[in-house]
Design goal:
Layout (H helix, E strand, L loop, with lengths): L5 E9 L3 H12 L4 E5 L14 E2 L13 H8 L6 E3 L4 H14 L2 H29 L5 E2 L3 E5 L2 H10 L10 E5 H7 L9 E5 L3 E3 L2 H14 L3 E4 L6 E2 L5 E4 L5 E9 L5 H9 L6 E10 L11 E3 L4 E6 L2 E5 L2 E3 L9 H10 L14 E7 L6 E4 L6 E5 L5 H17 L17 H8 L1
Parallel strand pairs: 1-2, 1-13, 2-10, 4-18, 6-15, 13-21
Antiparallel strand pairs: 3-9, 5-9, 6-8, 7-8, 11-12, 12-13, 14-17, 14-19, 15-16, 16-17, 20-21
Helix pairs in contact: 1-7, 1-10, 4-7, 4-10
The chain binds flavin-adenine dinucleotide.
Flavin-adenine dinucleotide binds next to helix 1, strand 14, strand 19 and helix 10.
Length: about 425
């Protein structure tokens, strides 16, 4: 990657995950002289190890369960889909309460409505970047399959399809036999499946981000390594940062795209507190035996995991874990998922020495921050994409770039404004 000694840029993008890299790419395409900074190489954070789904069919965000029976079910802490550290519970409880409130039917409807234009553009925006960067070999267009082990859950899922009619999604409903034909490696003990056809999937999400970054650099962009927490505002109004090689970088605008670590910098620079929590998740790769491989990613919704054929092997990604973001990895959830998988698939031996731990950056109202940081000119945010950061990276980047360059935004940006978390500050100021 290219290195700069002392240079002035139009925009400094902080964080080279899928969100920051796509943002830098879009700004560079719009003629902005852009520098992208990360402490590591690009695409090694949450964007490295996800399930690779460009989730065009997830039109309703993942909300907090509202039925008491479901809450009791999760509270037992014995499920493969969700695990929590008892000691962390008092710390995360206020956030969970906000998440629960934001998951009321009316709030969920608002979140769905706000997110829909982004979801609708997600595949097309990736497609444009994938083609520009020559990364077609990392993308598959056959969708993914949601499997159901028990017939009641399958019947309920089929009944819920009627609610999705307004979104005009494409899918095939598969009985046990049809599923077996689509995925011959599965034992025929499953109730059925829904094959979601609109999504695309990525076979190496980390390499996708690296490929986007390489294309950004090839188009004249600059990638540097350094610590975003060294960001300062100069008297002349420019943002300044010290790169790892000791050089100083200046820019008129700075974009915070640090995934789950965005809140700390926002607090430090703008004194704005956002309720950004982490839903941890894991992955492990397994040998894909000859004649045993899967044709599509499979999602077992009840157990909350995805089993996806990837470049590195068969990747099992787990659901949600609530634990301190920096606490050591805990294999309990992976073990639970493995034993569920083995009910219907001959999972082979593990390939990785260590379990991979990723951190989803989550806001309680189920939508990211995309836009200007109020009160500080030239500071912008693009973070909090939760379960769908891979899906939303390019489209959020396009929206933010349109806002930064004064173009007509592809959707109304108001639902993504950071000031939705600043009501109490505004009320205090008014009072
Ligand atoms: C198990 C799992 C499965 C998932 N599956 C999917 C899926 O199938 N589809 C989907 O759409 N999404 C999925 N996600 C969610 C998705 O991975 C995330 O939403 C997305 O990767 C977030 O991207 P990001 O760029 O915001 O964060 P990150 O990828 O974490 O990038 C943030 C970057 O900021 C850098 N950084 C942080 N602090 C500093 C600092 N002080 N100085 C310099 N650099 C810094 C980090 O090094 C990192 O590179 C999954 C997540 C997990 C954990």
């Amino acid at each position: 990657m290219k290195k700069d000694s002392h240079k002035k840029f139009d925009v400094l993008v902080l964080g080279a995950g899928i969100i920051g890299t796509s943002t830098a790419w879009h700004l560079q395409q719009r003629g902005k002289k852009t520098v992208l900074l990360d402490r590591d190489q690009p695409g090694l954070g949450a964007s490295y190890g996800n399930a690779g789904l460009i989730e065009r069919s997830s039109v309703v965000p993942y909300s907090f369960p509202r039925r008491l029976s479901a809450i009791v079910h999760y509270a037992g802490n014995r499920l493969p889909s969700m695990h929590y550290d008892w000691l962390y519970l008092p710390k995360i409880a206020p956030w969970l309460y906000q998440f629960w409130r934001q998951s009321s039917p009316e709030n969920l409807r608002l979140a769905t409505q706000a997110m829909l234009p982004l979801i609708e553009h997600s595949v097309g925006e990736h497609d444009m970047m994938i083609k520009a960067a020559g990364l077609q070999h990392l993308r598959r267009e056959q969708g993914w399959i949601e499997i159901f082990r028990d017939s009641c859950a399958f019947a309920a899922a089929k009944a819920e399809l009627a609610d999705l009619e307004p979104y005009q999604l494409s899918y095939d409903v598969l009985d046990a036999q049809a599923l077996k034909e689509r995925e011959p490696a599965l034992k025929a003990s499953l109730a059925g499946a829904i094959h979601w056809l609109d999504p695309h999937t990525i076979t190496a999400p980390g390499r996708l981000v690296q490929g986007y970054c390489q294309h950004f650099v090839a188009q004249g962009g600059t990638f540097i390594q350094g610590n975003a927490l060294t960001l300062t505002r100069q008297e002349r109004g420019l943002w300044q940062i010290q790169a790892q090689d000791g050089s100083h970088i200046e820019a008129e605008h700075a974009v915070i795209a640090l995934g789950w670590e965005s809140a700390a910098l926002l607090q430090e620079i703008a004194k704005i507190s956002v309720p950004l929590a982490v839903k941890r998740g894991y992955h492990m790769h397994y040998v894909q035996e000859e004649g045993q491989s899967l044709n599509h990613p499979l999602c077992d919704s009840a157990a909350g995991f995805v089993l996806a054929p990837m470049e590195q092997g068969l990747r099992l990604t787990t659901g949600i874990e609530f634990a301190s973001p920096l606490a050591p990895a805990n294999e309990v959830q992976l073990h639970r998922c493995e034993s569920v998988v083995r009910q219907y698939y001959a999972l082979s031996k593990r390939l990785d020495e260590k379990i991979w731990l990723g951190r989803r950056p989550c806001l309680p109202d189920m939508r990211p921050v995309i836009g200007a940081i109020p009160g500080i000119s030239g500071l912008w945010g693009n973070f909090g994409h939760a379960h769908h950061g891979l899906t939303l990276g390019p489209v959020s980047a396009r929206l933010l770039s349109e806002m930064m360059t004064g173009e007509k935004p592809l959707t109304a940006p108001a639902p993504f404004a950071v000031d939705r978390f600043m009501v109490s500050v505004r009320e205090t100021l008014k009072g």
